[in-house]
């Protein structure tokens, strides 16, 4: 009757010796036991069919690119390859070129600064807002959901708007600062090598605050009120309550938010390309944008692939952290 | 000062102090509301600025006035004229990607949640790992494959690639919902003789309607916002999503911000509509996708 129990029974058994023979037996005189077995096999096959399209898709659009990228990184893969079909093996030459280039250390440092700056900013402001929105006040829900807007807008739209706001001569920010007499001349937010990265990080913080706020708010809501009530009896209120009750209880959510944030920030491309295109003078070039430039602007696909793989390895380190943080919620 | 306060308090008339007691927390609450509105105003200023700048007359690069006192729609005229086709392309790709994504993700989520097929753990693991793979790595490999398959500059090519933003997320979020679905309902249908496909189509799909809508809306937004695949998997103007149109606008020196901002406003419409009209689903998606 219950199919799921049938399945779990068969699944719980280890190997099934002789199962292959049963399948080839003629259906003319099925023994009841064999019949049931083959029905179960068909049943399981049917169940797998529901999953097959997703498995194929994931294999083609995530599995294949990763493998292909590794292969390409060992080849001299350029535009010529598209005409001749030849991509000679060059061993580690692509990695050697990419890693020894002076641009690599610049992009690596920029990637680190961009990621750390963005994550710290998003998290601190997001957590502060999440704690603020824990209070009960009129319109709380509506205002909180409207805050999601920056996160839902296409990144390239946000980049375009910020390009205009941060414009040196007539951008809103410089005009605002000018009217307050904080600055006399326009600050070249996006065109100065020393400011561009800070500006890009600032925009990325703006984009990431809603996500941090929402997830952390959800985490805060799950902390039972009784804990705070018990804590207040022991004199734990305000900062003490935060340190001894809120923070420990929020830790699992915090680690998921931070690691997800790092993984997503490492691969950011849209915002940087939209705001500065990696410039001025590579001051906002990250590993992701550099990989893009190598493949799609210089058409050195092999080198682009090699640099992409470096990014994958960095992400994988954080992937391990991510899986450890999220295993519980997935199993649950 | 303090002494007068202390002496004053007990001497205040009973009715007045009673009145003050009830309204003070109320006033404090509205104080928080005001503070929240200030936060919101700061956070949404760029959105305001985008709308404001889109309503300025063409060609005024020098000074955008703080308020659109004399709204001018010439920016929108230029935007629709130049980017209307690209908006249509984006719409077709986004809708196609929603269909593809749900067709792949819903059965998969069902298999993972209800059948608990062998290998489910591996599939879930692969989905999580897939989130670590940078888009540029996928694009790099897909470009060469698409070049061989003739899928560059094609709508099906972009639908297939863009769905990679939505499918893993959709599987996770629909599965999380289906985990909470009573198995007895499906078993009852199966006992009544419904095949797997029919039980799925007529019982499971209607029951998980909300999670399907959430997954569909987010897939739409992801694909609509896609920039990377638009940038890398198209080489001509034949198929050009609006995100790429905006990028090309801002790639060159901009002397007509009002039409750029008008295009940006038009490209923001799906996000704004969803936030206002489908808030419940958006809220479900933000929390469900990341933590569950």
From TrEMBL, chain B:
It is a multi-pass membrane protein. Residues 1-22 are annotated as: Disordered. The chain crosses the membrane at residues 30-51, 91-115, 122-143, 155-178, 199-224, 257-278. Residues 87-278 form the ABC transmembrane type-1 domain. It is found in: Cell membrane. Keywords: Cell membrane, Membrane, Transmembrane, Transmembrane helix, Transport. The keyword Isomerase does not apply. CDD domains: TM_PBP2 (cd06261). GO terms for biological process: transmembrane transport. GO terms for cellular component: plasma membrane. It comes from the Bacteria. Belongs to the binding-protein-dependent transport system permease family. This is Carbohydrate ABC transporter permease.
């Amino acid at each position: 009757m219950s199919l799921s129990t049938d399945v779990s029974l068969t699944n719980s058994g280890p190997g099934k010796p002789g199962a292959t023979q049963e399948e080839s037996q003629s259906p003319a005189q099925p023994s009841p036991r064999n019949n049931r077995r083959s029905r179960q096999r068909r049943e399981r096959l049917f169940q797998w069919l529901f999953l097959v399209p997703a498995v194929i898709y994931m294999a083609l659009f995530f599995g294949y690119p990763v493998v292909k990228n590794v292969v390409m990184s060992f080849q001299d893969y350029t535009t010529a390859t598209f005409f001749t079909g030849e991509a000679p093996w060059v061993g580690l030459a692509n990695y050697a070129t990419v890693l020894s280039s002076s641009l690599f250390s610049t992009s690596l440092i920029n990637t680190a600064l961009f990621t750390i700056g963005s994550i710290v900013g998003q998290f601190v402001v997001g957590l502060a807002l999440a704690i603020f929105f824990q209070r009960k006040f009129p319109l709380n829900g509506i205002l909180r959901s409207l805050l999601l807007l920056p996160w839902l807008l296409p990144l390239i739209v946000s980049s375009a708007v910020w390009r205009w706001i941060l414009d040196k001569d007539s951008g809103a920010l410089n005009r605002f600062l000018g009217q307050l007499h904080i600055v006399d001349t326009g600050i070249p937010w996006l065109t100065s090598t020393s400011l561009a990265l800070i500006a890009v990080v600032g925009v990325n913080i703006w984009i990431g605050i809603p996500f941090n706020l929402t997830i952390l708010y959800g985490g805060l809501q799950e902390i039972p009120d009784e804990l705070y009530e018990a804590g207040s009896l022991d004199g734990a209120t305000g900062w003490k309550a935060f340190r001894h009750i809120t923070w420990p209880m929020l830790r699992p959510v915090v680690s998921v938010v931070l690691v997800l944030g790092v993984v997503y920030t490492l691969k950011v491309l849209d915002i940087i390309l939209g705001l500065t295109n990696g410039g001025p003078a590579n001051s906002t070039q990250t590993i992701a944008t550099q990989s893009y430039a190598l493949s799609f602007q210089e058409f050195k696909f092999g080198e682009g692939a090699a640099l992409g793989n470096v990014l994958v390895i960095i992400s994988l380190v954080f992937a391990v952290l991510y899986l450890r943080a999220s295993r519980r919620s997935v199993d649950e | 000062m303090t002494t007068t306060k202390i002496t004053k308090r007990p001497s205040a008339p009973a009715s007045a102090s009673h009145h003050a007691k009830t309204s003070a927390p109320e006033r404090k609450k509205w104080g928080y509301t005001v503070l929240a509105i200030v936060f919101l105003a700061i956070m949404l200023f760029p959105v305001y600025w985008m709308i404001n700048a889109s309503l300025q007359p063409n060609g005024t690069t020098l000074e955008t006035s703080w308020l659109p006192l004399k709204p001018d729609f010439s920016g929108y005229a230029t935007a629709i004229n130049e980017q209307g086709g690209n908006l249509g392309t984006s719409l077709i790709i986004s809708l196609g990607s929603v269909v593809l994504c749900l067709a792949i993700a819903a059965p998969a989520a069902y298999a993972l949640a209800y059948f608990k097929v062998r290998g489910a753990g591996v599939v879930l693991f692969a989905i999580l790992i897939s989130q670590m793979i940078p888009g540029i790595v996928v694009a790099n490999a897909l470009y060469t494959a698409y070049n061989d398959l003739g899928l560059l500059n094609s709508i099906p090519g972009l639908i297939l690639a863009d769905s990679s933003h939505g499918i893993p997320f959709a599987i996770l979020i629909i599965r999380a919902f289906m985990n909470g679905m009573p198995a007895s309902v499906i078993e009852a249908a199966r006992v009544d003789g419904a095949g797997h496909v029919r039980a799925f189509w007529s019982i499971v799909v209607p029951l998980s309607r909300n999670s399907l809508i959430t997954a569909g809306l987010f897939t739409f937004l992801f694909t609509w916002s896609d920039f990377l695949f638009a940038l890398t998997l198209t080489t001509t103007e034949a198929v050009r999503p609006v995100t790429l149109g905006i990028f090309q606008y801002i790639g060159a020196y901009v002397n007509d911000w009002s039409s750029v901002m008008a295009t940006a406003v038009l490209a923001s419409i799906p996000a704004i509509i969803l936030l206002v009209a489908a808030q419940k689903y958006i809220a479900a998606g933000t929390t469900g996708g990341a933590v569950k």
